[in-house]
Structures are given as structure tokens and as C-alpha cells.
Amino acid sequence: RRVHGGINVSLTTLGRVIDALIGNQRPPYRDSVLTQLLSDSLGGNSRTTMLAALSPAAINFAESVSTLRYASRARQITNVVKVNTDPTQMLIEQLKKELEEFKAAMFE
Question: How many CA atoms lie within 13 A of 95 on its CB side?
Fold first, then answer.
């Protein structure tokens, strides 16, 4: 029973994080372990896919509708994805390019 309470708290916090990301506010990632683990995926520099598991049973209708609302809100999150680059590696590539240009200029 105590585990269920922790899961509910984590899911509630996840909902608050999603709402904050949609509203361009600072998300409360530190309020639960789940949101801390998902922070890079939700608001960081990554591409994220969410799957919503639904049940066709009539008894689970309310839960399925709630899941769809949750997924709909999560879908509104937009991340700006950029390639992670190492500054040292960028400098090496730039210097290699300059070296090739100098070699080409010398042999002309």
C-alpha cells in the first residue's frame, strides 16, 4: 500500500513538471525520484517518445481517459535538440581543416 502512495506522488509530480514545461516555468524536478530520472528526457537536450497504454475494457474507461489526457499534455512539451559537441574535439577538427587548406595552398 505504501508503494502505491509513492507511485501516485511521483505521477502527480510528473504532471506538475509537464504543466511547468508547457507553461515555460521552472519545473520541480527534485520533488520526486521519477522526475529526477526523467529530467533530461523531459526538458533536456534529447528526443523523447511517450507510450500510453490503454485498456479496451469498459471497467478501465476512466483510467484510459486519464492516461490520454496525460499523454496529450506531455505531447505539448517542446525541446530544442542540439548535438552535444566536445570543445576540444571541435578545435581539433578546425585545426585539421586549416592544415588541409594550407597543404592545398602550398602545392598549388
Answer: 6
